[in-house]
Amino acid sequence: MTDNDALPASAPAIATPATADADALLVADRVTKQFGGLTAVREVDLTIPRGSIVSIIGPNGAGKTTFFNIIVGIIEPTAGGVSMAGRRMIGRPLRAWIEPFVWIAPGVLFFVLATLIALAGQDEIGVGVIIVGLVVFAAMLLAAVIRPRWYLNMLQRFGVFRSARPNEMAAAGIGRTFQNIRLFANASARENVLVGMHLKLKSNLLDAFLSTGRSRREEAAAAAKADELLELVGLKGRGDALAKNLPYGDQRRLEVARALASEPSLLLLDEPTSGMNPNETTEMRVLIKKLRDELGISVLLIEHDMHVVMGISDHVTVLDHGEKIAEGSPEAVRANPKVIEAYLGTAAT
Amino acid sequence: MTAKVAAAPRSDWRAPFQKFRDEHHSLTILLIWLIIAIALPLIVQIPPLSTFQPQIVWVDGFAISGIYILLALGLNIVVGFAGLLDLGYAAFFAIGSYTFAFAASPQAITHLNIPFWPMLIVGALIAALFGVLLGAPTLRLRGDYLAIVTLGFGEIVPALFLNADALTKGTNGIGGIPQPSLPCIGDFCVKFSFIDPFPFYFTMIGILAIVMVLIYRLLESRLGRSWMAIREDELAASSSGINTITTKLLAFALGASTAGFAGVFSASKLGNVTPDQFLFVVSFTVLAMVVLGGMGNPWGVVIGAFTLYTIQSVVLKELNQFFQSQHVPILQNIDFVQYQFLLYGIALVGMMLLRPEGLFPSNRRRRELHQETVEETDIAPPTTALDES
Amino acid sequence: MTGMATHLRRGSSLRPILITVAALAVSYAYLGTPQFMNAMTLGAIYALIALGYTMVYGIIELINFAHGDIFMVGAFVSLWVLTVPLGLIDRPINDPAQLTLTLVIVTIPVMLFMGVIGVVIERFAYRPLRHAPRLAPLITAIGVSFILQNIIQVLFGPSPHPTPQVFPRVDVLSIPDINIFDFSIAGGIVRALNLMIILVAILLMVGLQVFVNRTRLGRAMRSTSQDREAAALMGVDINQTIAVTFFIAAALAGAGGVVYGIYFGSVQFNLGFYVGLFAFTAAVLGGIGNTVGAAVGGFVIAFITVIAAQMGYSRWSEVAVFSVLILVLVFKPSGLFGQPLGERA
Fold first, then answer.
1. 3-state SS string for A245-266
2. DSSP codes of every residue in A29-65
3. A317 forms bridges with which residues in the sheet?
C-alpha cells in the first residue's frame, strides 16, 4: 500500500500513451478485436482532435460498429486501447486477478481476527469484530460494484487496469446514439432526455425520500433544460409524446437530444441519417455542424454512405474488412483508388 | 376554474380531486390510508362479513395481511421497478425476523433487550446489508441467473437458521419475542398484546402509509427514472451514464430492507420465529401477489396482496364451510385450502399469458409488457457484454 | 446447446480426463464402494435432469423452473404404472429377464408421456411468451412448477409415497446362492441396481449426443440455439425444433423420475424442487447450454452431496450445493465447459 511510488513505472497500461497531439480528445491506439477466428477490427488507429468532426466510413461489415462499440466500452478489445482526454480508458486488463483480493482481503482479515479473539475466550468482542468485518466486507463489495474514484485509485496503486464500462465512458464525456434507435420507447420524449441528464443531476436517495427543496428545484430545472434540448434538435412541443409514437426522423433527433443531455465533449453518432429521407438528412447535417460550431462538441460519425459525411467532416477514416485502408481529408479520401475499389460493387450510390 | 370545468364537463367532479392529488401526492396517500384504517374494521361488522368471523379476528387478519402487503411492496421495487426476478425474497424477511428475535427475545442466546421501535430500522438496515452482500456479486449476471441465485439464497437462509441450532434452536425457533411498547400520554395508553390486534393493526397501517409515500417519491425521482430506463433498454441506460449495477443494487437493497421491516413486525406480532415461516412458498406467494396486482404499480400491488391474503386465509375456508353446510354434492368433499397453490400457479401463468401487466397496472407497465421485445441486431453481444466484468 | 460438441475444444481434452480420473480415484478411496456407487447413481439421475435444463436454456434461453417438477411427475407416473397396471406392490422380481422387461415396459411409456407433457407445457405456457419481456416466461415457469406440484399433491396426497421395490431387496440378496445381481469389486459389493441406473443414464446421454450431432432434427436444434433467425431463414421449423427439445428434455427427466423412484423407494410431491435445483446447479456448473457439461456437473454435484454426507454434514449438503451455485455464478458464470457469457448473442 505504500509502494505507490514503485508501481507506475512498471504499469504501462496506466501511463498515458504517447500522443503527438496534446489537443486530442480521443485516441484509439491499434485497436484489434477478434471474435473466435474472425478479426473484426485490426490495429485501427484513430485520433479525434477537440472541436472536430471525424468520420469513419466503410462498406457494410467493415467493422465500423465493432470499433464503435469498443470505443464506448461495450466490447473489450483483444488488443490496443482507447484514451479519453489523455486518460487511458479501455484496453486489455492488467493484473485483473488482484482485484478480488482488494475487496475480499479486508473481510477475511476481520474474520481471522474474530476467530482468534473468540479462541482467546473473548466471545463478545469476537462477535463485535465479526459484525464490523461484515460491514467492512459489504462496503468493499459495494465499492467493487460502484467503483468510486477512491476505489479505482486504489486499484491503480496495485497496478490493476480494467476497461471502463459504458456508463464510465459516458461520465468521461462520451454521448452516443445507436444505429438501430434505442430509445426508452414507452417513456415520453422529455423523460428520455431526462434519463440522458442522469449524470448532471445530483439528488440522492435521501433527497428523494424527503422530497427536499433541492431535489424539486433540480427536477424542475432539468425538465426546463430538457425542453430546451428538444427545441435545439427540432422537437419543440413534443416533450409529452411517447418516444415510440414519434416519427422515425424525430426518434433519431430525440436520440441526439438524449445524448446531448449529458453535456458530452464527444458525440458519437452511429449512422445518424440511416433510413432518413433527403430532407431529414440535410437537417441532421445542419444540426451536427451546429453542435460543433455553437456548442464546441467534437463529433465522431459512423456511416456506410460516404456522401453523407463528405460535406461536414474535417477528417475521414475508411475501414474495410476491419482494416484502415485510407484516411485524410474528405477530398483526398474520395480520390483514393483503394476506397473506390472497396466501395465498388457494394453500397456505392 | 369555471372555464376549465366547462372545457371538460365529463370529468368535472374528478377535477378537484385530481388537482389535489397532483399537488399533494404524499398527503393524498396518507389520507387514503387513514380512510382505510378507519373503514376496514367497520366494514367487517356489516352482515355477510360479520358472520364469517368476529371483528377482532378480522382485524388480526388485516394486521397480518399488512405484513404480506409490505413484503409485496418491497418485492415490487425489485421486480416491478428494476425488472429483476428475486425468488428468494423470504430470506430477507427471515433475516429481519431473526434480527429482532436475537435483539429482543429473552430466550435467544444473545440476551439483549432492545425495544421494537429502533429495531424496526435496524432490522431493515441489516436486511439491506445482506441484500447488498448477495446482490453485489450477482447483479452483474443476466436476469434469469439472478433469479436462480436468489432462489438458492432463499433456501440457504432458512436452512442456516434451521441447522445452526446452537444459536437458533433449530425447528423450535425462538419464542418469547416481546411486543412493542409505547409510553402513555396522560391517561391514554396503547398496549400491544396478543389479545388486542388493534394496536398492531394501526401500527401496520402507519408503516404501510409511510412506505407508500416513500415508494412514490422514489418512483418520481431520478432513481425511479433510472429503473425505468434499465427496464426498457439496459444498454441505452448505461450509455446515458447510468451505472446499471449500482441502480439495480439499490433496488435490491431497498426491497430487502422493506422485507426486513416486515420481518421485525412479523416477529413481534407472532411472538416467535421458526425457520418454516420463511420457506419458498412465502417468496412464491408474494411474487404471485405482485404479479396479480400489477408489477410496478404500488396501489395495484397492495390490492393484489390484500386480495390473495384474504382468499388464502378466509375465502377458501369459508368455501369449505359453505359447501359442507349446504351439502353441495361433489364440492362438499373438496378441501379448497389444498388448492391454494394451484390457484396461485394458475394465476401466475394466466396473468402472464393474458394480462401481463396485472389486474391494476400502471399505464407505463401496460405499455411495456405489451410490446414485443426489440430484436437487437445493432451490436453483436448486446446486454451480455455488460455482464462481463 | 451452443456449446454442444462443436464448441468443445477437443485439443485440450487430455487434462480434463486426467483431472476426472484423479478426482474419481480420490473420492473412491474416501467413500468406499457402496457410497461411491451411490454417488455415481445420484450423479446419473442429476445428469439426466440437468440435460433438460441445459437443452431448454440453450434453445430458448429460459430457465425452465418447472423442469424439476416434470421429473417429479415422471416419478409419480412410473409409480402409478408400476402399481396399477402392473400390480407390482412390493413384489421383487428375481428373474433378470423379467426384471429388464418390466423396467423397459415402465420406462418407455413414462418417457413418452412426460415428453408429451413437456411439449404441451411449452405450447401453452411458453410459446405465447416467446417475444415477451424476459421476466414473463420466467414467472410463467414458476407458475407451471406450482401447478404440477399441486396436482400431484391433490392426487397422491402430501406425504411421501413408497414406490414398489421391483429390484430384489438387500435382505434377499444377502443369501449368496440366489444373488445373481450383485458382485463384489475390491472387497466392496456393487449392486446391479446402481449399475443399471448408471447404464441407462449413459445410454440415454450417448443417444442424445448422437441425436444432436447426427440427425437432421439435431442439427436443427443446434442451429436454432445458435441463431434462431438465421436458422429460420435456412428453412428450420423453429416451433417444431423447440417442441422436440422440450420433448427430449421432459422425456429424460421422466426417465430420471423412473430410476429415482426405484432407487430411493419413496417419492413426494415436492421432490422436484430440491432435485431440480441441484440439477440446475449441475447445469450451471457444467456451463449452461452445454450438454456434456451438464452431465459432468450432475456427477460433481452428486459427489459433493455424498461426500458431505459421509463427512457427517448431510444436512448442510443443500447449503453446500447452493454455495457452489452462487460461487460458480459469481466467479465463473460460464461454468466449467461453457464459453464466456459475454460472447453469447
1. HCCHHHHHHHHHHHHHCCCCCE
2. EEEEEEETTEEEEEEEEEEEETT-EEEEE-STTSSHH
3. A56, A327
Return the closest-CA partner of residue B251 out of B82, B134, B130: B82
CB A183 within 8 A of CB A251: yes
Cα angle B272, B276, B279 (rounded to 5 degrees) comes to 130
pTM score of the predicted model = 0.85
Chain B CA closest to residue C124: B353
Spatial distance between the Cα atoms of C36 and C302, rounded to a whole number of angstroms = 10
- Please indicate if any CB of chain A lies within 8 Å of the CB of B249: yes
Q: Which of C137, C146, C280 sits opposite B341 (nearest CB)?
A: C146
CA atoms within a 13 Å half-sphere pointing along the CA-CB vector of C310: 18
Kindly state the DSSP code that residue B185 receives in the 8-state scheme: B
The Cα of C260 is separated from the nearest Cα of chain B by a number of Å equal to 23
Residues of B in contact with A135 (CB under 8 A): 129
Candidates B87, B153, B345; nearest CB to C146: B345
Q: Residue C275 corresponds to which cell in the numbers above?
A: 432435485
How far CA B282 is from CA of B136, B153, B341, C109, C268, in Å, comes to 24, 14, 11, 36, 20
Partner chains of A (3+ C-beta pairs under 8 Å)? B
Query: Are the Cβ atoms of C146 and B342 closer than 8 angstroms?
Result: yes
pLDDT for residue C45 is more than 80: yes
For B132-166, b/e burial (b = at least 16 CB within 10 A) is bbbbbbbbbbbbbbbbbbbbbbbbbbbbbbbbeee
- ipTM beyond 0.85? no
Please name which of B389, B288, B296 lies closest in space to residue B345, comparing C-alpha atoms: B288
Residue B267 pLDDT: 93
Only one residue has cell 483508388, namely A337
Search chain A and give the residue with CA nearest B245: A145
CB C119 within 8 A of CB C112: no
d(CA A348, CA A342): 9
Report how far Cα A60 is from the mean position of its chain's Cα atoms.
23
Across the strands, what pairs with A53?
Answer: A299
Picking from A178, A215, A262, the nearest residue to B378 by CB comes out as A178
pLDDT in tens, B193-229: 778 888 899 999 999 999 999 999 998 889 999 999 9
Q: Is beta strand A24-35 parallel, antiparallel or unpaired with respect to A323-328?
A: unpaired
Q: Does the CB of C325 have a partner CB in chain B at under 8 Å?
A: yes
Using a CB-CB cut-off of 8 Å, the residues of chain A touching B388 are 76
On whether any CB of chain B is under 8 Å from the CB of C190, the answer is no
Interface of B with A in 131-190 (CB under 8 A): 132-133, 136-137, 139-140
pLDDT digits (tens, 9 = 90+) for A267-325: 999 988 888 888 888 888 888 988 899 888 999 999 877 777 888 899 999 988 888 88
